[in-house]
Every structure is written in structure tokens, then in C-alpha cells.
Specification:
This protein has about 525 residues and is an alpha/beta fold. Helix content is about 30%, strand content about 15%. The chain has 17 helices and 17 strands.
Length: about 525
């Protein structure tokens, strides 16, 4: 990141140094020093702001350290590099950098009169704890239409973010620790950007939502946020065996610390770093090049945050069930056809063409319960066996676990503002890069709500007029929740409280363009949750 000299940009108020209104609005003093952003007319961006020291060399696999201060004015025109990513299939190239703990801030122009502060939205990106970057998301609409300050965050991924080893002792999941360091930076600096540090809403999708689940149950996150929106990832989410392909293991998003440390010992052996005492092992591991560590096999071995440490003392699902979570207003949401995204990615390798194919997958996933699942989801009642498979996994792994998480929250905090949604646009634009499957429409698949909040995400076609109207409504809902803890606005269909329909949380807001429109639905019944609640996870 370039630095301008102090002489080139005189300090505010210095004698003989008049500054334009635009320059004054684009230079902000943070705890570490001054930064110059870029004015885009109705909004201003500050990109690539360091919230922690680069976690390189001796700082690899350590909790994030404070960033260094600087003199002069730091150029904040461009985002920093993304954190090291899971290598793309068929390539050995490593994308990203270990020097990646930066965030980006977007705020409306100008600042509010009278010093009134705006609510702050902090976005945690998804990507299976293996990929993604805060700079992938254009937050203009949330900032300008919603009148909020929006922050997007990079955090360590894969082996760099979730490695464990007995020589490290009981350490926090580094990627989650990065996120909390970013939240502490927001608390310290939000006011300088016109934001209210006492009105911070965490929101995230997929792995970002799972991260927020962890922070909801983390004692070290106390006071760092006041509201939370979890999109397509709850504290109870899991996949059965075979969900992503025949024989693939069951998936739980969080892992016992002992399991992560055992995987770390195996990685050290593979890398030739197993000899000697703990200090020698760590010195050898920290001496490995980024390229040697960022292999597909090693990255995928470390994409589950560990529990059993100070940041995450217990598994988040157990913490939620026992009432050990921060009592803040929450929105929990899923998409109507979540698993079609995963299915679309794997159908070429693992086709489900016939009822026999379907039945074999059921047996692999559910064993003795397979006949009961097939009776509830007969292939003949769906357009194809593959779509039947996606429907039952959407219900089992996303919708019903999210509603169960809502029940757990409501049981321990019955008066807490708690809302649910289901993104239900059957013709949502397909995210760029997904394979075309003529007999397998994606519908409202995993991640397909995000272009309705972030206009920059690439899709195969732009939003229609009706979808743009839905996008506006969703932005209004999200930013109203950030402002008040209630998503409702005066000119849009009202959301039901998730726990307001006894005896179970059932009613969620269905988000779809006209003609279906926005309305409350009984997601518990529509997704067969009474059936799934009776089966073991």
C-alpha cells in the first residue's frame, strides 16, 4: 500500500494548507494513521485498511497482532490481496497472499449533519473457509440506499486460518480470531467514518454465517456486535454421509481441538517437520513456503474451526442448546433450493439419473432410515431423481436445522427479536461459473440471494425489473434490521417473529419477486421438518 508523505497532504487545519471539501471527506484519521479513500459521488470507499499485522514469518499461526502505525497518509484506493485461497481444480497456482488481514469501508457521502452516526454492517464472506475475499462484494447499495457504513473483511483461510498442533497448545481458530480483531478495529474506528460503534450488525453467508454462529457463542466476542444476520448457515447445520458424492464423509462445520491437532501432526509428518521437540516442529512448519502449504489436500484438511479453546470453548450447537450465547437480535435465513448449487457442481462426476441411482445415494446417506426418507421424498414426485435428492438435502441440512437453531434461541431468550426468511426466487440469476445442467435448474440455490444485496457479484444475466424491486426491498429489510433490530419498514410486507407461532418457530418471510411476492410461509411444514426432527443427525 502506497504512502504519501506528510508534506504532500498537510494535516487538517495546518496553517497555509487549504483543502477542498472532497479531500477533507476522503481523508480519515484511524488509530494507526491517516488514510485517503476515493469519492464516488454518492459514496466513498476506503480499501485495504490493515486491522492486524501481517501473519507471516514468526506470526504465522499466532493470534492476530495489532497493525503498525504509519506517518503521512496511506492510500486506500485499492483493496489488498485476498488471503491465500484453495487452489482452483486443475491448477497448481497459488492465489492470494499471507499478508491479507485488511478490510474495506464504504460510507454514504456526505456524513450526516450534527454528528449523528450511522449503523455499521460488517460482512463476513463465505467460501467454505477455503476461499473468498471481502473485496468481492460491492456494498454501494447497502451503504447509499440503506444509509449505513459497510465493512467487508478478509480473514485467514484453510491451513493458514484453521491449523492446529499440540506444539501450539490450545490456540483459537486463527480465522475466527482475525474476524474478532476486525470487529475490535471497527469498535475503535467506526466513529471516524461516521459509524456508530454501539450499533454493529454482523452479517454473512455460508462459512460467513457459520463464523457468526461461532461469535454468537464465543465469550471473547462479548460487546463486539449488537445484531446478527446468518444467511444459509446456522449453528446446527450439517451434511450426512454422501451428501456431496458417494462415500464422502458426513460434515460438521466445527471440529474438536484434538481432531484438528491430530490432523496438524499428520501434516507436519507429510511436510518433513515431525522430528524434534515442539519448538523445532513449529520452526520447521513456519519455515515452509506458502506454495508448499497451499495445496488442495492441506487446505481442505483445515477448513473446520476448532472448539475447546478460549475463543470457542464448546461446539456452537451445544452452546446454543444450553443457552450459552449472546442475546442479540438475530435474523436466520435459507434459500428454497440450497442444495441445488452443490448438486450442480457434482452431477457430472456423480450423476443421479435413475431411481436406482437415487436409492443408492439414500442408502449411503441414511442407512436403515433410507426407506423412510424415500417414502417421504419419492423420486416420482419430483421432475428428476437428482432434484429429489437436492430437495431432501435442502430440507435436512439447511431449512430444518436453521429452524431448530431458532427454537434453541427462542427457548433461552423468549423475548429476543428473532426473524427468519427464505429466499424463494425460482428464476434467480445463476452465479457465473456454475456448470449448466439442462435438466437441473438451480432455482433459489445456495448463494443466489447475494446478488440481490451486492450488485457486483457476477451472474449469467442481470436482474429483471421485478428482481431489482425485490433487491431494493431486501436492502431495506437488512439495513432496517441493522438500524433498529427489526427488519420491518413502513412500506413493505411485515415479517413475522420466528418464535411467534406456537408450539414451534415456523413462520418465515418468503422473499420472491412478483407475482409470488413477499409473504409469510410455514417453512416447517413446507420442508418436512417434523419428519427430519425425528431422525438422528
Amino acid at each position: 500500500m502506497a504512502l504519501l508523505t506528510a508534506a504532500a497532504v498537510p494535516a487538517s487545519g495546518a496553517p497555509g494548507s487549504p483543502r477542498s471539501a472532497e479531500e477533507s471527506s476522503t481523508v480519515v484519521r484511524t488509530d494507526q494513521g491517516r488514510v485517503r479513500g476515493v469519492s464516488h459521488g454518492s459514496y466513498t470507499t476506503f480499501n485495504g485498511l490493515p486491522y492486524a499485522a501481517p501473519p507471516t514469518g514468526s506470526l504465522r499461526w499466532r493470534a492476530p497482532a495489532p497493525p503498525a502505525a504509519w506517518d503521512g497518509v496511506r492510500d486506500a484506493a485499492e483493496p489488498a490481496q485476498r488471503c491465500v485461497q484453495m487452489p482452483a481444480p486443475g491448477t497448481g497456482a497459488v492465489a492470494g497472499s499471507e499478508d491479507c488481514l485488511y478490510l474495506n469501508v464504504t460510507l454514504p457521502t456526505p456524513k450526516r449533519a450534527g454528528g449523528k452516526k450511522r449503523p455499521v454492517l460488517v460482512w463476513m464472506h463465505g467460501g467454505a473457509f477455503l476461499g473468498g475475499s471481502g473485496s468481492d462484494y460491492d456494498t454501494e447499495q447497502l451503504a447509499v440506499r440503506g444509509d449505513t457504513v459497510v465493512v467487508t473483511v478478509n480473514y485467514r483461510l484453510g491451513i493458514f486460518g484453521y491449523f492446529g498442533h499440540s506444539a501450539l497448545g490450545s490456540t483459537p481458530p486463527f480465522g475466527l480470531a482475525d474476524q474478532q480483531a476486525a470487529l475490535r478495529w471497527v469498535r475503535a474506528n467506526a466513529e471516524r467514518f461516521g459509524g456508530d460503534p454501539r450499533s454493529v450488525t454482523l452479517f454473512g453467508e455460508s462459512a460467513g454465517a457459520l463464523s457468526i454462529c461461532a461469535h454468537l457463542t464465543s465469550p471473547t466476542a462479548v460487546g463486539l456486535f449488537q445484531r446478527a444476520v446468518l444467511q444459509s448457515g446456522s449453528c446446527l447445520m450439517s451434511f450426512p454421509r454422501g451428501a456431496l458424492g458417494p462415500g464422502t464423509p458426513a460434515y460438521e462445520p466445527f471440529a474438536p481441538e484434538a481432531d484438528v491437532q491430530a490432523a496438524g501432526a499428520e501434516a507436519a509428518r507429510q511436510l518433513g517437520c515431525a522430528a524434534g521437540g515442539g519448538d523445532e516442529v513449529l520452526a520447521c512448519l513456519r519455515g515452509q513456503s506458502t506454495d508448499r502449504l497451499a495445496t488442495a489436500q492441506l487446505m481442505q484438511s483445515f477448513n473446520r474451526p476448532a472448539f475447546g479453546n478460549a475463543l470457542l470453548p464448546s461446539a456452537p450447537d451445544r452452546a446454543l442448546a444450553s443457552g450459552r450465547f449472546h442475546h442479540v437480535p438475530v435474523v436466520l435465513g435459507t434459500n428454497h433450493d440450497e442444495m441445488r448449487m452443490f448438486g450442480g457442481l457434482t452431477l457430472a462426476a456423480f450423476p443421479i439419473r435413475t431411481e436406482d441411482d437415487y436409492r443408492a445415494r439414500l442408502v449411503d446417506a441414511f442407512g436403515a432410515d433410507a426407506p423412510a426418507v424415500e417414502a417421504r421424498y419419492p423420486a416420482a414426485q419430483h421432475p428428476t431423481p437428482a432434484l429429489a435428492w437436492a430437495a431432501l438435502l435442502t430440507d435436512r441440512s439447511f431449512t430444518c436445522t436453521t429452524l431448530a437453531a431458532g427454537r434453541a434461541i427462542a427457548a433461552h431468550a423468549p423475548g429476543l427479536p428473532l426473524y427468519g426468511y427464505e429466499f424463494s426466487d425460482p428464476d434467480a440469476p445463476v452465479l457465473t461459473g456454475l456448470p449448466a445442467n439442462p435438466d437441473f435448474p438451480y432455482g433459489a440455490a445456495h448463494g443466489f440471494e447475494m446478488p440481490f444485496l451486492f450488485s457486483s457479484l457476477p451472474t449469467e444475466r442481470p436482474l429483471t425489473d421485478a428482481q431489482r424491486a425485490l433487491s431494493d426491498r431486501m436492502v431495506d429489510y437488512w439495513t432496517s434490521f441493522a438500524r433498529t433490530g427489526n427488519p420491518n419498514t413502513s412500506d413493505a410486507p411485515l415479517w413475522p417473529l420466528l418464535h411467534s407461532s406456537p408450539p414451534l418457530p415456523r413462520s418465515v418471510q418468503s422473499l420472491a419477486p412478483q407475482p409470488g411476492g413477499i409473504h409469510a410461509v410455514d417453512a416447517h411444514s413446507a420442508h418436512q421438518c417434523s419428519f427430519w426432527d425425528r431422525l438422528p443427525r
